[in-house]
Specification:
The strands form 10 sheets. A 5-stranded mixed sheet has the order 4-6-11-8-9, with no helix packed on it. The protein is globular, with a radius of gyration of 26 Å. The protein is built from no helices and 38 strands.
Length: about 525
């Protein structure tokens, strides 16, 4: 499939509807873009479907080709909407309509499960469990699989996919909603699975929290005692689109293992962008600014969102447990001081139409250091055709006061990054606004000269890619932020050395050449 693309598929598209009509309420899927290498597929809930192909008068592509397969549906126990009430349960199993002991060909069973409000759903798979596996490894599950998502749609956060013969762990959802999918191809068939779904009380406490100017506490269940096994807690810290939330971890002991693959704490901002169907056949729910995934015992710098609610997720498996985390959250004050060696800077404000405000965000580094700041984005509600700074004026000042020399400025929406380097150990971001705005920046401190070494936050706009603290580099290029590092010799700077990635922290053995110094990378938005 190769169609003209665009967010929401506004130009050319292929849509699938349940039944015989193109009723928007019966739309199952809508596709566009180039998905030739991994074509999408769609499943209806009835025995009739309508496929609609729409094009406009502009760009033309090669189009699409589709195959239609008929398989069992909800009436044969394959998918459907189910409700779990009180102490009752629902049973899900892989369909075996012919009674031969194996599940059927070409299954795509999708169950939408709803439980009691105020409780959470628990999904338990029972022995025997046997789903076709890729050789001896179940890592990818490319053929047949059982999939569980924490929500009611294929765009909800993925808990995991399972295949092979190892029994999946019991799964406790973060809410009273679950999405379960069982998929099979037309090759090898096994005995499949049987699972039950029940209501249980949540150990996560309240899952919707409101950020206010008062500092509040969020912590893992049982903290400072060990957290439970097989845990999935999701909290929403609510704020308006133009309020900045700050989160400060005061304790962190999470048994994550390599890549935080076991237990982990994930922080990300919630945005209102729709879910997108990726070319690899998966859904991506875009959360806007992507925060970080944390494990281990190293407490990170304070986290600032660039505006809007924040989603905090804590996951544990069935192996080792530790004491977990303790997090303080609140609305960020207008004026603040940053003293960490690296960090993110978010600021947002909604104007009432008659008011204005000025905010000072001061970065304060040790004596002898310099600061590199990267301003990534400013969003405003007013188009500034005259390039006047009357409604919004962001100044990047080389010092700690409003009278310090100005390094750069911005007076309207910004989509091309701006980078500045201080001459000393202070850098001030001063924002004066009478209109609604949001901005996002990051910074790092170096004691070896401008743009050489230091702690570099990198920002990644992919909610499915883990963001692990403590990845390391020997320099790094941040958009608009870093130039090649000059290599110093006894006679001065004579050559240029590029910034190169590294994988280890060699503090004890790092080179004495300041431009070769090692730097620690913290991932965050880019």
């Amino acid at each position: 499939m190769d169609l003209e693309g665009g967010t929401g598929c506004p130009y050319d598209s292929v849509s699938v509807f349940d039944d015989r009509w193109t009723n928007p309420e019966e739309q199952v899927d809508k596709f566009c873009g180039n998905m030739t290498t991994s074509p999408p597929h769609s499943v209806t809930t009835s025995n009739q479907a309508t496929i609609q192909f729409v094009t406009d008068s502009s760009v033309q592509r090669t189009g699409f080709k589709a195959a239609v397969l008929f398989s069992v549906g909800p009436n044969q126990g394959c998918g459907g909407e189910l409700t779990v009430s009180g102490s009752g349960q629902q049973t899900l199993r892989s369909p075996d309509t012919d009674g031969d002991g194996g599940y059927e060909d070409d299954l795509d069973c999708r169950w939408l499960l709803r439980g009691d409000e105020g409780r959470v759903l628990r999904f338990t798979v029972h022995q025997p469990f046997n789903v076709e596996v890729n050789g001896s490894s179940s890592a990818a599950c490319p053929y047949d699989y059982l999939e569980v998502r924490d929500g009611l749609s294929p765009a909800a956060p993925l808990v995991d996919r399972y295949c092979g013969t190892q029994l999946p762990p019991a799964i406790t959802a973060s809410s009273s909603r679950l999405y379960v999918r069982f998929y099979s191809d037309r090759e090898i068939h096994r005995s499949g699975f049987t699972a039950t779904v029940t209501n249980v009380d949540s150990v996560c406490g309240r899952t919707t929290l409101a950020a206010t100017e008062t500092v509040q506490i969020l912590q893992s269940p049982g903290h400072p005692a060990q957290y439970p096994a097989n845990l999935l807690c999701v909290w929403t810290i609510a704020a308006t689109r133009y309020q900045t939330v700050q989160l400060h971890l005061t304790a962190l002991q999470i048994a994550g293992g390599p890549g935080c693959a076991r237990d982990r704490l994930t922080v990300e901002r919630i945005d209102q962008h729709p879910a997108q169907y990726r070319q690899d056949g998966t859904y991506s729910h875009y959360w806007g600014w992507v925060g970080d995934t944390y494990c281990g015992t190293t407490v990170p710098a304070t986290i600032y969102s660039p505006g809007g609610s924040v989603r905090v997720q804590f996951t544990s498996d069935s192996t080792d447990q530790m004491t977990g985390f303790r997090l303080e959250y609140s609305l960020a004050p207008c004026n603040r001081t940053y003293t960490a060696a690296y960090g993110t800077i978010g600021s947002a404000w909604e104007s009432t139409g008659t008011s204005s405000r000025t905010c000072h965000m001061l970065i304060q580094a040790p004596e002898g250091s310099v600061i590199t700041a990267n301003l990534f984005r400013i969003e405003t509600t007013y188009s500034n055709a005259a390039n006047s700074c009357d409604r919004l004026h962001l100044q990047l000042l080389d010092g700690n006061s409003r009278s310090s020399p100005q390094l750069n400025q911005a007076c309207e929406s910004l989509y091309t990054p701006i980078s500045v380097v201080s001459s000393g150990n202070h850098l001030l971001l001063r924002v004066t606004a009478s209109q609604t705005y949001k901005l996002f920046a990051n910074y790092f401190v170096s004691d070896v000269g401008a743009q050489c070494g230091g702690n570099v936050p990198r920002h990644v706009h992919d909610s499915d890619q883990p963001r692990l603290p403590g990845q390391l580099l020997q320099g790094v290029g941040v958009a608009g932020g870093l130039s090649p590092c000059r290599r110093h010799t006894s006679s001065g700077c004579t050559s240029q050395a590029p910034w190169t990635l590294a994988r280890e922290w060699a503090a004890a053995t790092r080179p004495t050449c300041p431009c070769s110094r090692w730097a620690r990378l913290e991932r965050g938005p880019s």
